[in-house]
Write a structure and sequence with these properties.
There is one protein chain. With 329 residues, the protein is of the alpha/beta class. The chain has 2 domains: 194 residues, 3-Layer(aba) Sandwich (Rossmann fold); 117 residues, Alpha-Beta Complex (UDP-galactose 4-epimerase, domain 1). Helices cover 38% and strands 15% of the residues. The chain is built from 11 helices and 13 strands. The strands form 4 sheets. It has a 7-stranded parallel β-sheet with strand order 3-2-1-4-5-6-11, sandwiched between helices. A two-stranded parallel ribbon has the order 7-10. The chain has a two-stranded parallel sheet with strand order 8-13. α1 links the parallel β1 and β2. α4 packs parallel to α5. The longest helix has 21 residues. It is globular and about 60 Å long. Bound molecules: nicotinamide-adenine-dinucleotide.
Length: 329
């Protein structure tokens, strides 16, 4: 993709900001974000970039969406309210994730957007019934978040089938890397473990640690999203983007302990998070077949890269630790 006008919702977030970095090299990018979990510093490298325009606004604002999608060629829709917040506030979650997606489909159709990429989530599957999980695996989300992401998928594809909006669904699995959230309700498992271990505190595992995830490094996820979006055969289709390997949360804690030379800090086990999925392990053969996707970074390499980035930030570790909320849902 070159010289196009691209809208990225949620562009100040973890994955969205990396997508902005990649896509703004050859295109004009408009970011729409309400900065609820996204951060201005994730886009600080673009403040003087004439090819990146940042709008503070909300995907629930239909008037704004009508204006912002004018003359846009391609939409990448990533704005989301996160899973853990959905547990306390299911209604807002539905409004942002499901209704927000419908709003954006409507505005994109009205303004003749040429391609619409909905960034969904492996959470739409619920716990694996068979592995590796193909795109045809049953869809039984355990949380309102997963259900709202699934509603977004269904609206996206209904807009293709009924109105001909050239849309597609990309389902990333758990993604990690630089700029991933460690703070409060948004804190994800890898940054939380790294922060605790760097503070000489044991990682805290919710449940028995046998839960498994298909952890995918950010550069592999972003490359997968872009490759899918450029593939004509993806119109009206859904595809998994993942590493294609599973890792248990206990093993993840051990890898982090080992990488930081603190294997002595044995994990502490606490009550499980409501609705926590037990197993995710993706079949990525469709992505490979349709557009030659191959992940490059394995978990040990990726954790090493993340730790290098984290330590390079020169964070005040004890101050950051104060922002950690143990039971963050
Ligand atoms: N991080 C993962 O492991 C992962 C895995 C699978 C799928 N995804 C999907 O990738 C996308 C991005 O996730 P992320 O991890 O970068 O999350 P994130 O929280 O870092 O990013 C979401 C962004 O959306 C913005 N936002 C929230 N509500 C909004 C609203 N009402 N209007 C406008 N902007 C709003 C936030 O401020 C934030 O910048 C999401 O759609 C998510 O479902 C993420």
């Amino acid at each position: 993709m070159k010289d196009k006008k691209i809208l990225i919702t949620g562009g100040a977030g973890f994955i969205g900001s990396h997508l902005v970095d990649a896509i703004s090299k050859d295109n004009h990018v408009v970011v729409l974000d309400n900065f609820s979990s996204g951060k201005k510093e994730n886009l600080s490298q673009h403040l003087q970039n004439p090819f990146v325009t940042i709008f503070e606004g909300d995907v629930r604002d239909k008037t704004l969406l009508g204006k912002i999608t004018k003359e846009i060629d391609v939409v990448y829709h990533l704005a989301v309210q996160c899973l853990r917040v959905s547990i306390k506030d299911p209604e807002t979650n539905h409004e942002v994730n499901a209704t927000g997606t419908l709003n954006l489909c409507m505005a994109s159709m009205e303004n003749n957007v040429k391609r619409f990429i909905y960034v969904s989530s492996s959470e739409v599957y619920g716990t694996a019934k068979s592995v590796p999980m193909t795109e045809d695996h049953s869809l039984e989300p355990t949380t309102v978040y997963g259900a709202s992401k699934l509603a977004g998928e269904l609206y996206t594809l209904a807009y293709y089938r009924t109105y001909g909006l050239k849309s597609m669904v990309v389902r990333p699995f758990n993604t990690y890397g630089p700029r991933e959230h460690f703070e409060g309700a948004y804190g994800e498992v890898i940054p939380k473990f790294v922060l605790r271990v760097l503070n000489n505190m044991p990682p805290i595992i919710f449940g028995d640690g046998t839960q498994k995830r298909d952890f995918t490094y950010i550069s592999d996820t972003v490359r997968g999203i872009i490759m899918a979006s450029e593939c004509d055969d993806m119109i009206g289709q859904t595809v998994n983007i993942a590493r294609g390997k599973e890792v248990s949360i206990s093993d993840l804690a051990n890898i982090i302990g080992e990488k930081l030379g603190k294997k002595n800090l044995k994990p502490v086990y606490e009550r499980k998070r409501p609705g926590d999925v037990m197993r995710h392990y993706a079949d990525i053969s469709k992505a490979e077949r349709l557009f030659g996707y191959k992940p490059e970074i394995d978990i040990r390499d990726g954790i090493g890269r993340y730790i290098d980035w984290f330590t390079d930030q020169n964070y005040n570790l004890s101050e950051l630790m104060k922002q950690d909320v143990v039971f963050n849902w």
